[in-house]
Design a protein that fits this description.
Layout: E1 2-3, E2 26-31, E3 37-45, E4 52-56, E5 61-63, E6 74-76, E7 81-85, E8 95-98, E9 103-108, E10 126-128, H1 132-139, H2 146-150, E11 154-156, E12 170-175, E13 181-187, E14 190-195, H3 207-213, E15 228-230, E16 233-235, H4 253-266, H5 273-285, H6 300-304, E17 313-321, E18 326-331, E19 334-341, E20 353-356
Parallel strand pairs: 1-5, 10-11
Antiparallel strand pairs: 2-3, 3-17, 4-7, 4-20, 5-6, 7-8, 8-9, 9-12, 12-13, 13-14, 15-16, 17-18, 18-19
Length: 372
Protein backbone atom coordinates (compact mmCIF):
# COMPACT_ATOMS: atom_id res chain seq x y z
CA UNK A 1 0.00 0.00 0.00
CA UNK A 2 1.25 3.49 -0.85
CA UNK A 3 0.38 6.73 0.91
CA UNK A 4 -0.29 9.48 -1.59
CA UNK A 5 1.72 12.65 -0.87
CA UNK A 6 -1.09 15.03 -1.79
CA UNK A 7 -3.08 13.90 1.27
CA UNK A 8 -0.51 15.45 3.56
CA UNK A 9 -1.86 18.94 2.90
CA UNK A 10 -5.21 18.27 4.52
CA UNK A 11 -4.28 15.66 7.11
CA UNK A 12 -0.83 15.47 8.60
CA UNK A 13 -0.26 19.22 8.51
CA UNK A 14 -3.73 20.09 9.73
CA UNK A 15 -2.47 19.64 13.25
CA UNK A 16 0.02 22.46 12.80
CA UNK A 17 -2.32 25.11 11.38
CA UNK A 18 -3.02 27.00 14.61
CA UNK A 19 -0.30 29.40 15.66
CA UNK A 20 0.97 29.70 19.22
CA UNK A 21 -0.85 26.59 20.41
CA UNK A 22 1.86 24.04 21.21
CA UNK A 23 4.30 25.94 23.37
CA UNK A 24 4.35 23.66 26.41
CA UNK A 25 5.01 20.13 25.14
CA UNK A 26 7.87 18.24 26.74
CA UNK A 27 9.62 14.87 26.84
CA UNK A 28 11.81 13.12 29.41
CA UNK A 29 13.61 9.79 29.87
CA UNK A 30 13.97 7.58 32.95
CA UNK A 31 16.13 4.50 33.55
CA UNK A 32 15.17 1.74 35.99
CA UNK A 33 17.56 -0.31 38.07
CA UNK A 34 16.90 -3.38 35.92
CA UNK A 35 17.81 -1.47 32.75
CA UNK A 36 14.28 -0.60 31.64
CA UNK A 37 14.07 2.70 29.74
CA UNK A 38 10.84 4.72 29.82
CA UNK A 39 10.10 8.04 28.16
CA UNK A 40 7.27 10.43 29.02
CA UNK A 41 5.75 12.93 26.59
CA UNK A 42 2.99 15.52 26.95
CA UNK A 43 1.01 17.27 24.23
CA UNK A 44 -0.35 20.74 24.99
CA UNK A 45 -2.65 22.37 22.45
CA UNK A 46 -5.53 24.82 22.15
CA UNK A 47 -7.69 23.05 19.60
CA UNK A 48 -9.19 19.58 19.46
CA UNK A 49 -7.12 17.92 16.75
CA UNK A 50 -8.88 14.54 16.91
CA UNK A 51 -5.74 12.74 18.06
CA UNK A 52 -5.57 8.96 17.87
CA UNK A 53 -2.98 6.20 17.55
CA UNK A 54 -1.94 4.50 14.34
CA UNK A 55 -0.24 1.12 13.96
CA UNK A 56 2.04 1.27 10.92
CA UNK A 57 3.26 -2.09 9.56
CA UNK A 58 6.56 -2.98 7.96
CA UNK A 59 6.99 -2.58 4.20
CA UNK A 60 4.58 0.36 4.00
CA UNK A 61 5.60 2.71 1.21
CA UNK A 62 5.58 6.37 2.21
CA UNK A 63 6.08 9.22 -0.25
CA UNK A 64 7.01 12.69 0.90
CA UNK A 65 5.20 15.59 -0.79
CA UNK A 66 7.07 18.47 -2.37
CA UNK A 67 6.35 22.16 -3.04
CA UNK A 68 5.50 21.41 -6.68
CA UNK A 69 3.06 18.62 -5.76
CA UNK A 70 5.34 15.92 -7.11
CA UNK A 71 6.88 13.07 -5.15
CA UNK A 72 9.84 13.73 -2.90
CA UNK A 73 11.74 11.12 -0.92
CA UNK A 74 10.12 7.68 -0.86
CA UNK A 75 10.80 4.71 1.39
CA UNK A 76 9.36 1.44 2.65
CA UNK A 77 9.18 1.06 6.39
CA UNK A 78 11.79 -1.34 7.69
CA UNK A 79 10.22 -1.40 11.14
CA UNK A 80 6.63 -1.23 12.30
CA UNK A 81 5.66 1.48 14.76
CA UNK A 82 2.86 3.01 16.79
CA UNK A 83 2.39 6.77 16.71
CA UNK A 84 0.03 9.63 17.50
CA UNK A 85 -1.47 11.53 14.58
CA UNK A 86 -4.34 13.95 14.11
CA UNK A 87 -7.49 14.31 12.00
CA UNK A 88 -7.35 10.71 10.79
CA UNK A 89 -3.93 11.04 9.17
CA UNK A 90 -1.82 7.95 8.51
CA UNK A 91 1.45 9.89 8.67
CA UNK A 92 2.78 13.08 10.21
CA UNK A 93 3.38 11.30 13.53
CA UNK A 94 4.19 13.70 16.38
CA UNK A 95 5.00 10.98 18.94
CA UNK A 96 5.79 7.32 18.44
CA UNK A 97 7.83 4.21 19.18
CA UNK A 98 8.93 1.50 16.78
CA UNK A 99 9.24 -2.24 17.32
CA UNK A 100 12.96 -1.89 18.10
CA UNK A 101 12.32 0.42 21.04
CA UNK A 102 13.27 3.69 19.34
CA UNK A 103 10.98 6.56 20.37
CA UNK A 104 10.75 9.91 18.58
CA UNK A 105 8.96 13.07 19.71
CA UNK A 106 8.21 16.03 17.45
CA UNK A 107 7.73 19.26 19.42
CA UNK A 108 6.87 22.78 18.31
CA UNK A 109 10.00 24.89 17.84
CA UNK A 110 11.21 28.45 17.28
CA UNK A 111 9.26 30.24 14.56
CA UNK A 112 12.50 31.59 13.06
CA UNK A 113 14.08 28.16 12.55
CA UNK A 114 15.19 27.43 9.01
CA UNK A 115 14.76 24.07 7.36
CA UNK A 116 17.07 22.90 4.59
CA UNK A 117 16.70 24.28 1.09
CA UNK A 118 14.35 22.62 -1.37
CA UNK A 119 16.18 21.40 -4.48
CA UNK A 120 14.11 19.98 -7.38
CA UNK A 121 17.17 18.32 -8.92
CA UNK A 122 17.61 16.26 -5.72
CA UNK A 123 13.99 15.26 -5.42
CA UNK A 124 14.68 11.74 -4.14
CA UNK A 125 16.44 13.26 -1.10
CA UNK A 126 13.75 15.82 -0.29
CA UNK A 127 11.85 15.04 2.92
CA UNK A 128 8.99 17.26 4.16
CA UNK A 129 9.90 18.44 7.67
CA UNK A 130 6.76 17.05 9.39
CA UNK A 131 7.69 13.56 8.14
CA UNK A 132 11.06 13.40 9.90
CA UNK A 133 9.47 11.47 12.77
CA UNK A 134 7.87 8.94 10.41
CA UNK A 135 11.15 8.47 8.56
CA UNK A 136 13.20 7.81 11.71
CA UNK A 137 10.63 5.43 13.20
CA UNK A 138 10.30 3.47 9.98
CA UNK A 139 13.99 3.19 9.21
CA UNK A 140 16.23 3.25 12.29
CA UNK A 141 16.69 1.22 15.47
CA UNK A 142 19.17 3.35 17.44
CA UNK A 143 19.94 7.03 17.88
CA UNK A 144 23.62 6.56 16.98
CA UNK A 145 22.60 6.29 13.31
CA UNK A 146 20.38 9.37 13.15
CA UNK A 147 22.93 11.99 12.15
CA UNK A 148 24.57 9.83 9.49
CA UNK A 149 21.29 8.72 7.91
CA UNK A 150 19.45 12.06 8.08
CA UNK A 151 22.49 13.69 6.48
CA UNK A 152 21.60 11.77 3.32
CA UNK A 153 18.28 13.65 3.13
CA UNK A 154 17.19 17.28 3.01
CA UNK A 155 14.35 18.18 5.38
CA UNK A 156 12.58 21.15 3.80
CA UNK A 157 9.82 23.48 4.96
CA UNK A 158 6.51 22.20 3.67
CA UNK A 159 3.84 24.88 3.94
CA UNK A 160 0.07 24.73 4.15
CA UNK A 161 -1.33 26.92 1.34
CA UNK A 162 -3.00 30.11 2.48
CA UNK A 163 -2.52 33.86 2.86
CA UNK A 164 0.06 33.84 4.18
CA UNK A 165 1.10 30.18 3.88
CA UNK A 166 1.61 28.39 7.19
CA UNK A 167 4.91 26.55 7.62
CA UNK A 168 5.29 24.24 10.66
CA UNK A 169 8.39 24.64 12.81
CA UNK A 170 9.40 21.47 14.65
CA UNK A 171 12.37 19.94 16.42
CA UNK A 172 12.77 16.35 17.55
CA UNK A 173 13.99 14.20 20.42
CA UNK A 174 14.83 10.52 19.95
CA UNK A 175 15.68 7.90 22.58
CA UNK A 176 16.48 4.23 22.05
CA UNK A 177 16.21 1.06 24.10
CA UNK A 178 19.73 1.55 25.48
CA UNK A 179 18.68 4.89 26.96
CA UNK A 180 20.70 7.01 24.53
CA UNK A 181 18.98 10.23 23.40
CA UNK A 182 19.59 12.81 20.67
CA UNK A 183 17.99 16.16 19.83
CA UNK A 184 17.50 16.99 16.15
CA UNK A 185 17.17 20.64 15.14
CA UNK A 186 17.41 22.40 11.79
CA UNK A 187 19.19 25.74 12.00
CA UNK A 188 20.22 28.13 9.23
CA UNK A 189 19.43 25.47 6.69
CA UNK A 190 21.64 22.84 8.34
CA UNK A 191 20.98 19.66 10.29
CA UNK A 192 22.12 19.83 13.93
CA UNK A 193 22.15 16.68 16.06
CA UNK A 194 23.00 17.03 19.75
CA UNK A 195 23.70 14.44 22.42
CA UNK A 196 21.02 14.66 25.09
CA UNK A 197 22.49 13.01 28.20
CA UNK A 198 19.73 14.39 30.46
CA UNK A 199 17.07 12.95 28.16
CA UNK A 200 14.82 16.03 28.39
CA UNK A 201 13.44 18.56 25.91
CA UNK A 202 10.77 21.25 25.72
CA UNK A 203 9.80 23.60 22.89
CA UNK A 204 12.15 26.57 22.85
CA UNK A 205 14.63 28.20 22.75
CA UNK A 206 17.21 26.09 20.96
CA UNK A 207 18.62 23.08 22.79
CA UNK A 208 22.16 24.49 23.35
CA UNK A 209 20.62 27.59 24.99
CA UNK A 210 18.51 25.41 27.27
CA UNK A 211 21.56 23.47 28.43
CA UNK A 212 23.52 26.67 29.08
CA UNK A 213 20.60 28.13 31.03
CA UNK A 214 20.78 25.21 33.48
CA UNK A 215 23.98 26.76 34.84
CA UNK A 216 21.77 29.37 36.51
CA UNK A 217 20.21 26.65 38.66
CA UNK A 218 23.10 24.45 39.77
CA UNK A 219 22.54 25.63 43.35
CA UNK A 220 19.17 23.88 43.60
CA UNK A 221 19.23 21.10 46.19
CA UNK A 222 16.75 18.57 47.50
CA UNK A 223 17.58 19.10 51.18
CA UNK A 224 16.65 21.85 53.63
CA UNK A 225 19.46 24.40 54.25
CA UNK A 226 20.94 24.73 57.72
CA UNK A 227 19.86 27.69 59.91
CA UNK A 228 21.83 30.88 59.31
CA UNK A 229 23.26 33.05 62.11
CA UNK A 230 23.56 36.76 61.39
CA UNK A 231 23.99 39.61 63.90
CA UNK A 232 22.71 37.47 66.72
CA UNK A 233 19.62 36.42 64.79
CA UNK A 234 19.00 32.80 63.81
CA UNK A 235 17.13 32.43 60.55
CA UNK A 236 15.68 29.03 59.78
CA UNK A 237 14.09 27.70 56.58
CA UNK A 238 10.34 28.15 56.48
CA UNK A 239 9.79 24.48 55.68
CA UNK A 240 10.71 21.51 53.57
CA UNK A 241 11.71 22.25 50.00
CA UNK A 242 13.71 25.37 50.82
CA UNK A 243 16.64 23.96 48.88
CA UNK A 244 14.54 24.26 45.74
CA UNK A 245 13.87 27.96 46.25
CA UNK A 246 14.26 29.64 42.87
CA UNK A 247 12.97 26.70 40.86
CA UNK A 248 10.83 28.33 38.13
CA UNK A 249 7.18 27.36 38.32
CA UNK A 250 5.62 29.05 35.29
CA UNK A 251 4.44 27.31 32.13
CA UNK A 252 7.05 28.59 29.66
CA UNK A 253 9.32 26.09 27.90
CA UNK A 254 12.56 27.31 29.55
CA UNK A 255 11.03 26.99 33.02
CA UNK A 256 9.62 23.56 32.25
CA UNK A 257 13.05 22.47 31.02
CA UNK A 258 14.65 23.51 34.32
CA UNK A 259 11.94 21.75 36.34
CA UNK A 260 12.38 18.61 34.27
CA UNK A 261 16.12 18.69 34.90
CA UNK A 262 15.59 19.10 38.65
CA UNK A 263 12.89 16.46 39.04
CA UNK A 264 14.64 13.81 36.96
CA UNK A 265 17.86 14.53 38.85
CA UNK A 266 16.49 14.26 42.37
CA UNK A 267 13.74 11.66 41.99
CA UNK A 268 14.72 8.36 43.58
CA UNK A 269 15.48 5.81 40.88
CA UNK A 270 13.15 2.82 40.78
CA UNK A 271 14.12 -0.84 40.43
CA UNK A 272 11.86 -2.03 37.64
CA UNK A 273 9.51 -1.13 34.80
CA UNK A 274 6.31 -0.95 36.85
CA UNK A 275 7.64 1.40 39.49
CA UNK A 276 9.48 3.51 36.93
CA UNK A 277 6.22 3.90 35.02
CA UNK A 278 4.63 5.10 38.25
CA UNK A 279 7.48 7.58 38.77
CA UNK A 280 7.04 8.86 35.21
CA UNK A 281 3.39 9.61 35.94
CA UNK A 282 4.29 11.54 39.09
CA UNK A 283 6.80 13.63 37.13
CA UNK A 284 4.22 14.24 34.41
CA UNK A 285 1.72 15.45 37.02
CA UNK A 286 4.03 18.38 37.79
CA UNK A 287 3.52 19.72 34.27
CA UNK A 288 -0.18 19.14 33.66
CA UNK A 289 -1.91 22.22 32.26
CA UNK A 290 -5.61 22.60 33.05
CA UNK A 291 -8.16 24.53 31.01
CA UNK A 292 -8.16 28.23 31.79
CA UNK A 293 -4.60 28.90 32.93
CA UNK A 294 -3.03 29.43 29.48
CA UNK A 295 -5.49 31.09 27.12
CA UNK A 296 -5.34 32.73 23.72
CA UNK A 297 -6.96 36.19 24.17
CA UNK A 298 -10.06 36.80 22.10
CA UNK A 299 -10.56 39.84 19.86
CA UNK A 300 -12.23 42.62 21.82
CA UNK A 301 -15.63 42.17 20.21
CA UNK A 302 -15.80 38.47 20.98
CA UNK A 303 -14.53 38.98 24.52
CA UNK A 304 -17.22 41.53 25.34
CA UNK A 305 -19.84 39.17 23.93
CA UNK A 306 -19.03 36.71 26.69
CA UNK A 307 -17.35 34.14 24.51
CA UNK A 308 -14.89 31.93 26.37
CA UNK A 309 -11.28 32.24 25.24
CA UNK A 310 -9.67 29.05 23.92
CA UNK A 311 -7.33 27.50 26.45
CA UNK A 312 -4.25 25.39 26.02
CA UNK A 313 -4.30 22.15 27.99
CA UNK A 314 -2.43 18.88 28.33
CA UNK A 315 -4.55 16.93 25.87
CA UNK A 316 -2.67 13.67 26.31
CA UNK A 317 0.47 12.15 27.74
CA UNK A 318 2.32 9.02 26.64
CA UNK A 319 4.71 6.77 28.52
CA UNK A 320 6.78 4.53 26.27
CA UNK A 321 8.55 1.49 27.71
CA UNK A 322 11.37 1.18 25.19
CA UNK A 323 12.66 -2.04 26.74
CA UNK A 324 9.44 -4.05 26.88
CA UNK A 325 7.82 -2.32 23.88
CA UNK A 326 4.67 -1.10 25.58
CA UNK A 327 3.14 2.32 24.91
CA UNK A 328 0.91 3.71 27.65
CA UNK A 329 -1.23 6.83 27.38
CA UNK A 330 -3.73 8.92 29.30
CA UNK A 331 -5.91 11.83 28.18
CA UNK A 332 -7.20 15.06 29.69
CA UNK A 333 -10.64 13.59 30.28
CA UNK A 334 -9.43 10.17 31.45
CA UNK A 335 -6.37 9.68 33.66
CA UNK A 336 -6.72 5.90 33.58
CA UNK A 337 -3.69 4.44 31.85
CA UNK A 338 -4.33 2.49 28.66
CA UNK A 339 -1.63 0.47 26.96
CA UNK A 340 -0.61 -0.96 23.59
CA UNK A 341 1.58 -4.06 23.81
CA UNK A 342 3.67 -4.42 20.69
CA UNK A 343 3.88 -8.21 21.01
CA UNK A 344 0.12 -8.30 20.41
CA UNK A 345 0.29 -6.26 17.19
CA UNK A 346 0.62 -7.52 13.63
CA UNK A 347 3.40 -5.48 12.03
CA UNK A 348 3.18 -7.70 8.95
CA UNK A 349 -0.31 -6.40 8.12
CA UNK A 350 -1.08 -4.78 4.77
CA UNK A 351 -2.70 -1.61 6.10
CA UNK A 352 -2.49 1.01 8.81
CA UNK A 353 -4.74 0.34 11.80
CA UNK A 354 -6.13 2.86 14.28
CA UNK A 355 -6.60 2.88 18.05
CA UNK A 356 -8.83 5.59 19.59
CA UNK A 357 -7.34 7.69 22.38
CA UNK A 358 -10.48 9.54 23.49
CA UNK A 359 -14.05 8.55 24.31
CA UNK A 360 -13.53 6.01 27.10
CA UNK A 361 -14.99 7.06 30.44
CA UNK A 362 -12.63 7.27 33.39
CA UNK A 363 -13.02 4.20 35.60
CA UNK A 364 -13.46 4.78 39.32
CA UNK A 365 -13.13 1.81 41.66
CA UNK A 366 -15.72 1.58 44.44
CA UNK A 367 -14.01 0.23 47.58
CA UNK A 368 -16.93 0.83 49.96
CA UNK A 369 -17.45 -2.91 50.43
CA UNK A 370 -13.90 -3.30 51.72
CA UNK A 371 -14.80 -1.58 54.98
CA UNK A 372 -14.32 -4.08 57.82
Amino acid sequence: MTWKPVLLIVTALAGFMIENTADACMVFRLKAGDGTVITGRSMEFLADLKFDLIVVPRNMEIISPSPDDKAGAAWKTRYGYVGVTQFGAEFGVNEGMNEKGLAVSGLWFEVDMKWQEWSPDKRSQMLAGPLVTDWILGNLDRVADIERELSKLKAFSYCVPGTPPFCPTIHFNACDAKGECKVIEYEEGALRVYDNPLGIMTNAPRFPWQMTNLRQYIGLENFRPQPLEQSGVTMRPTGHGAGMFGLPGDLTPPSRFVRLAALTRFAYGQPDAGRTLNLAQHIMNNFDIIHGVAIEPLPKGEATAGKQAPSESTQWATFSDLTNRVLYFRTYDNFNLRKVEFKKLDFAADKVKRIPMFGAAEAITDVSALAR
